[in-house]
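Possible regression after last week's pipeline update?

I re-ran a chain I had predicted before the update to compare outputs. Posting the input and the new output here so someone can diff against the archived version. Not blocking, just want to make sure nothing changed silently.
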Amino acid sequence: SIDAQPAINGNEALHTAAVYTSSYTGTVTIQGTLENQVVGSTNWFDIATITFTGSETEPVAQNFNGVYSHVRFAASANPANTITKILVRN
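New output (post-update):
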């Protein structure tokens, strides 16, 4: 999980995630939580889902608004060697 910096974002917080892939086929779901600590029982909710066909040659960006304590990314397929990085701007 990534600290979503809720204290500096106010009510209109804009976040951007850029997903860099290499032949990844599947989805990446951005999830958020309002809980103060991330533990095994943390409740996560879906914010947005990005679909990849495996033919992307550029990073895929997703903007989303909201005040979250933490965000994380869930891949529907094995991301090893196919999702090279995810950059997040809060």
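Follow-up from reviewer: compared with the archived run. The beta strands are 2-3, 14-21, 25-33, 45-53, 60-65, 70-75, 83-89. Marking as no regression found.
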